[in-house]
Amino acid sequence: MIEILETMSPILGVITTVLAVYIAWMAFAANIRFKKHSNYTGAINQWQTVNQTILGDDNLLEIERENHPFGTLTLAETKKMYHYFCSLNIARNALVGLNTGHLEVSYANFYINNCANISFKDRDFIRINVFPRGYPVLRHEIEKRWELIEKEGNPICQERLITSRRSFVERVLGLVKNEM
Q: What pTM was computed for the model?
């Protein structure tokens, strides 16, 4: 019996070491994902503060209107554009949360579906004035939902999930890295 334990001891040592390295690697990877998520959503939240500041000040809206790079906007259209920046930033945070494993697919879809529903009637305006200022990955998700709304003639109900988490993450993972 002692001989068997002596023979097994190095094997158990190797197994224990491999397990410890695996656990350490998983913790490290989770920490990296959390830091990316926090840094990215933190930056978007800072933009939210800027957007809300601009929305609350007609002088700042006028500056933004004068400097808009994609044509001429009225003050009301500039305000509408900043409203959509705020809405899209919430949906983009949800998309990043899903991609980094910090948000369940049902919650991410809730935010993205809601954004698609409330922006559907202004989709041409958003394509021209909002999407060119960012949102490449989110744009794909919003456009896909707009097509569905147009096809069915109804807003997307919140219970409906368009993609599974696995296929969604596999498809978007590389693109989100470019956006982050």
A: 0.70
Q: CA 94 to CA 168: how far, in whole Å?
A: 13
- Give me the pLDDT at residue 18, please: 83
Which residue's structure tokens are 């933004």?
A: 64
What confidence score (pLDDT) does residue 44 get?
A: 78
- Per-residue confidence (pLDDT) for residue 140, from 0 to 100: 92
Under 8 Å between Cβ of 33 and 97: no
Mark the ranges of the chain whose per-residue pLDDT is less than 70: 5, 37, 158-180
Residue position matching structure tokens 């809730």: 110
Per-residue confidence (pLDDT) for residue 158, from 0 to 100? 64
163-171: long-range pairs with CB below 8 Å, 24+? 163/105, 163/109, 164/105, 165/98, 165/104, 165/105, 168/98, 168/105, 169/98, 169/99
In order of 53, 75, 110, 161, 176, the CA distances from 59 in angstroms are 11, 10, 34, 42, 34
State the sign of the Cα–Cα–Cα–Cα dihedral 142, 144, 146, 149. Answer: negative
Rounded to whole angstroms, the Cα distance separating 130 from 81 reads 6
Q: What share of the chain is helix, strand, coil (3-state, %, to 5)?
A: 85, 0, 15
